[in-house]
């Protein structure tokens, strides 16, 4: 393990249209940025709702959900996962966790 990161998400900031209904539950694609420096609040980066390529190209506003803090590290950062060779640039899927109970507030 290269480190432990903790964070929190403001559930009321989650846009309902961003939730994906999957075979095993409801999912929200998020992007977590780890910055080199700590901000004024002791945070290492934001958690946002992932954007599509088109949203990024159109410079649409990001939906911020929360922040992260690095609480422990062994001094290394893992390399990115290998990409598929299908030209889509998608990363190989990680094993999925069991679907949580549907007790979300929305």
Attribute tags:
4-stranded antiparallel sheet, 6 strands, 106 residues
Structure, described:
The structure is a single chain. The protein has 106 residues and is mostly beta strands. The protein has a domain at 3-73. It is built from one helix and six strands. The chain has one helix spanning 53-57; strands spanning 3-9, 20-22, 25-27, 30-32, 45-49, 64-73. It has a four-stranded antiparallel sheet, with no helix packed on it. It has a two-stranded antiparallel ribbon with strand order 2-3. The longest helix is centred in the middle third of the chain and has 5 residues, at 53-57.
Q: So how many helices?
A: 1
Overall pLDDT: 85
> What percent of residues adopt helix (DSSP H or I)?
under 10%
Poorly predicted tracts of residues? none
Question: What's the layout of helices and strands?
Answer:
Layout: E1 3-9, E2 20-22, E3 25-27, E4 30-32, E5 45-49, H1 53-57, E6 64-73
Antiparallel strand pairs: 1-6, 2-3, 4-5, 5-6
């Amino acid at each position: 393990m290269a480190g432990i990161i903790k964070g929190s998400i403001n559930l009321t900031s989650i846009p309902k249209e961003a939730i994906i209904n999957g075979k095993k539950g409801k999912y929200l694609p998020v992007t977590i940025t780890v910055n080199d420096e700590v901000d004024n609040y002791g945070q290492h980066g934001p958690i946002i709702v992932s954007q599509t390529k088109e949203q990024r190209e159109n410079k649409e506003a990001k939906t911020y959900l929360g922040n992260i803090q690095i609480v422990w590290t062994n001094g290394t950062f893992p390399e990115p996962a290998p990409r598929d060779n299908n030209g889509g640039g998608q990363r190989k899927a990680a094993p999925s966790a069991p679907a949580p109970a549907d007790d979300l507030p929305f």
